[in-house]
Amino acid sequence: MPSVLFVCLGNICRSPMAEGILRREIERRGLVGWRVDSAGTGAHHAGEEADPRTLAVLEHHDADFDHTARQVKRSDFDAFDLLLAMDHTNYRDLLRLAPPERESKVHMMLEYTTGGEVPDPWFGGGEGFVQVYALLDDAVNAWIDKLVAAAG
What we know:
By secondary structure, this protein is of the alpha/beta class. The protein is built from five helices and four strands, in the order βαβααβαβα. The protein has one domain (3-145): Response regulator (Rossmann fold, 3-Layer(aba) Sandwich), CATH 3.40.50.2300. The chain has helices spanning 14-29, 52-60, 76-79, 88-97, 126-151, and strands at 3-8, 35-40, 82-85, 106-108. Helix 4 links the parallel strand 3 and strand 4.
């Protein structure tokens, strides 16, 4: 079964939001054996819980879970089938960290929906988190459909 790591900068906004959505969808769809986590390319929020605005949006959508921020590590490239980057900076940082034989595991989060980047809502108000949730909800479901279809 697939294992997915969502990656943003600090692991307190976008990546834990995507993780919460995938956790909820795994349960809703009755998928078994999936592994999901999130991490940041930076370490400045390691050990913290998710941003309160992230938590509020996740709770509103029945996708909340206990989260502690962590930094991505080299062993994640062996532990996960997919590492989904929220923006081009995270994507490049992951490729720099990845062993060459694991670079194909790194993808952009919005690859199967709008393309482009998931904007970082941290600097704005609550509305940015609502908008990011909508982008991530679509993208997570597109990734699930792709992974389920690939598994046959």
